[in-house]
Amino acid sequence: MMDESRVPPNKIFSSTATGGLAQYEATISERRAARAAAETSGHAGPQAIGLHGTWLIQTEMSSYVIDRDAATLQRVPGQGVGMDPELPGIAWVETLRKDGEIVPLLGIDVCVVGERAMLLIDVRGDGFPTSRHTSVVRAITELTGVSTAD
Fold first, then answer.
1. What is the spatial distance between Cα 97 and Cα 126, in angstroms, rounded to a whole number?
2. Boundaries of every domain in the chain
């Protein structure tokens, strides 16, 4: 039995629920992996963002233009490719600070098809990083001849 006193307060856990949190997370992970495999089996595009160039990242709920050379990011909310109807999730798009604006990109922890992207950006303009976690990345496309530095 899991010691619930060791569960971080921001995590939802119920040892009385059928299957519990571990079963729920395993089911979601399996469905996402199967969906990603099916989506990418005939997809000739990249599965991860490159180190250079400008990239269009399409998540379930929004789109992002990331310019690796200029180290910038622009989020366009509501322009995603849709959610998997078999997965539980939100039915709305959150409005975030600096939506539609080009902001400094400080780093990318994860950005691959089938996973949630984890980005570090400078929303405040003072170099203090803000961690931005996206909905599941559904497609990654390199944009040739495009730069946010122009």
1. 15
2. 16-150
Determine the Cα–Cα distance for residues 30 and 84; give it in Å rounded to an integer: 13
Residue in the block written with tokens 């010691």? 3
pLDDT 10s digit of each residue in the chain, 150 long?
444 444 344 333 333 344 555 665 666 566 666 555 555 544 456 788 889 999 999 998 899 999 999 999 999 988 777 665 555 555 566 788 899 999 999 999 889 998 999 999 999 999 899 999 998 899 999 998 776 665
- 5 CB-contact burial (10 Å; exposed 0-12 / middle 13-18 / buried 19+): exposed
